[in-house]
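Researcher: Let's run the pair from yesterday's discussion. Sequence first, then tokens, for each.
Model: Starting with the first of the pair.
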Amino acid sequence: MSLTIEILRTYKLNSLKLRGRLFSKAILLIFLLMSSMTSYAERDTSRDQFRHPTETLSFFGITPEMTVVEISPGGGWYTEVLAEHLTGTLFTAHYDPNADLAYYRNSQSRFAAKIAKNPVLYGNVEMRIFDATNQTLNTADNSADAVVTFRNVHNWLGTNSEAASFALFFKTLKPGGTLGVVEHRAPAGTDRKTMEESGYMTQDFVIELGRRAGFIFEQSSEINANSKDTADHLEGVWTLPPGLALGEQDREIYLAIGESDRMTLRFRKPKE
């Protein structure tokens, strides 16, 4: 009888220990999931007053079920917005992780770490490579509903790769797909050298890039316009926030101007 009681007591104790371990694991799992979650409300919204993400995505016609390619996502500010918005796949076309330049490798590495850190938010993100200089975009042809790029066109002037880049965007879009471009805006008539040095592009120049690649230019929007920005600063567009290239010099003046004046353009790949 005493042996039976001892067996039952041991079973009960082991059962409690097992349930305790399972409970602890469940609590740990819940904690990890909660700590990895980032809601739309928790992201850095301080830039929304200049970037107007909700209005911009609406203008581009980006709907949740779409397959979207984001070109040159940088630190991932818009990636966070897009990942929250989309239920379809988001391809982020960043630098080659094996690029020759350390800057490119480090930028891509930081971005990859950000994506890996939050699998709940970025579960629909697939990383790809975009290399403007070597004319590489490793997404499938005719596969994307939309291609978007935010404040990047000026970066391709130095290597004369802007036209080739737009051709790659055209190639990866489905017939009827959308190209959405946001770019720092220079006054009409600004020459190429000044655009390259300042980071500001003329709207006509960017529209012509799209047309030469085969796109139909549909519409421009003033969603991201900033009338306070003269596009004439000592360190170009990087003088303004968030870069503030001059540091403390005239910091309050540039903060009062805010981020750059920007064009917002929508192109369409013709339907077959």
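Model: Moving on to the second of the pair.
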Amino acid sequence: MRNMMRDTMKDKKFLGTRSFRVKSFGTSCGGWALLLCLICLASRAWGSDADILARWTKTNTFNERSGLQTVALKVTYYSGEYVEALVRSEAEKNLWTQDEMENYKYTLLKSLNLHDSIAFHIDLYVTGVPMYAQPFDRHLTLFVGKQRYSPSDYDKRFNFKISGQRDGMVFFPRYDPKTGKDILAGAKDIRLILNGSVSQATTAGGDVRWVWDITKDNPEALGAGKAMDRLELDRLIKRMEKLNQERQGLQTQIDAIDQELGEVQSRVDELQTR
């Protein structure tokens, strides 16, 4: 009888423990399911890196009416969001370590010089009659609000005959040359205009216009990390070099003034003793 009661108690304990484990497992599964749902929703809201890269890239194809020339254009604005997505995408594709990713990010940002420039990548593919666009920078204009800006630098290979594929970077000044203010501050969009006369294929349709809504950009997406620290260090070192040069120039002026003051004082003393 006692053995039967003991066995019954064991069964109850086992069932109770099993019931608790089942409930705990169910709760745990529910928590994980909720977390996965939230991650999926967030991913859809933010978009994948591929979606982000595509969002900041514009593509067009133009054909000359008689079929003599076709020009395919792909233009990318290097927004903060685009750069960060590009870094993540390259890191995932190449299976980089954190240090390798930071090194790539540093090299990329240094080449883009986003502290002082607004960067675009232009990819051309010309078939049929070659395209002659020299000087290429005169065919491009950036509009921010009512202000227009010309390129501060660009890949000079665009100045030569283009047949087949040709790509390169185009940079615009980030700060207004007159006011010194960041031209993107408070702006809602930017418009890049390519003069229609740049090629036979685009002439009939007039100027080519691309618009980017920069209110959707997130400059803070570049975040922190070793790459950003190295860029900040580079910037500060350059600033120190510039300040030292300015100080040297001022010191030279001060020395010249001190010398002249000494000569004047000597003459004053001489005249007073007469």
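Researcher: Give me one sentence on the second I can quote.
Model: The longest strand covers residues 117-131.
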